[in-house]
Design goal:
Order of helices and strands: HHHHHHHHHHHH
Oligomer: single chain
Helix content: over 70%
CATH architecture of the largest domain: Orthogonal Bundle
Strand content: under 5%
Radius of gyration: 20 Å
Number of domains: 2
């Protein structure tokens, strides 16, 4: 694909992502075309149906996660700062709104997308590496794993409607509090910790 064609395609996908974040995945294709500054015919030539466009948006979103994680890992003063900054970046209202819209779709929407799967795996591997680095450096508590971080992000980014109303009204405040609890300096033994459950003599 020529560079100018790639730029036009990226412009459409970015515009579609913004509109869907605001209005949901059912937004009319005409509204997406207007935001992208192209005709509806051009939009349909690029994406023959809504599913094709949604698949491209999902790929665009997970690619942005992978790139943001890479930048955080490379530019932060330490691994914990990078991890914390990345999670807070992901919960930005605009990005979180898009993730919420995409989370409403059935899993099958993205299952057959090989590039999506590769990018998602790369993002998860990068996140796991950053978690391990943060723990090795002593910034992050050792009994928290990557799945815990993903679960936290999944709740705040993809399913904010499941949060209590007072938490949903101030998501960043409560996310800061939860991230504070993941720091090594705040660690206490978790329920179910073998060391906690061992008999005392």
């Amino acid at each position: 694909m020529r560079a100018d064609a790639r730029r036009n395609l990226d412009k459409i996908v970015e515009a579609a992502a913004a509109v869907m974040a605001e209005r949901g995945v059912g937004v009319p294709m005409e509204a997406i075309a207007r935001r992208a500054g192209v005709g509806v015919g051009t939009l349909y030539r690029r994406f023959p149906d809504r599913n094709a466009l949604i698949a491209a948006i999902g790929e665009h979103y997970v690619h942005s996660l992978a790139e943001a994680l890479r930048e955080a890992a490379e530019n932060a003063p330490d691994a914990w700062s990078g991890l914390r900054g990345f999670v807070l970046w992901a919960v930005n209202p605009g990005r979180a709104a898009l993730a919420t819209a995409l989370a409403e779709l059935p899993d099958e929407t993205f299952l057959d997308m090989a590039e999506f799967a590769v990018t998602r795996r790369r993002w998860l591997e990068g996140l796991d590496e950053l978690v391990r680095r943060a723990q090795a450096e002593g910034g992050m508590r050792a009994d928290v794993d990557t799945e815990d971080v993903v679960s936290l992000m999944n709740l705040f980014v993809c399913h904010p409607a499941d949060l209590p109303a007072h938490v949903a009204a101030q998501p960043v405040r409560f996310l800061h509090l939860m991230l504070d609890g993941m720091q090594a300096s705040a660690a206490t033994r978790l329920p179910g910790d073998p060391a906690e459950d061992a008999p005392r003599v």
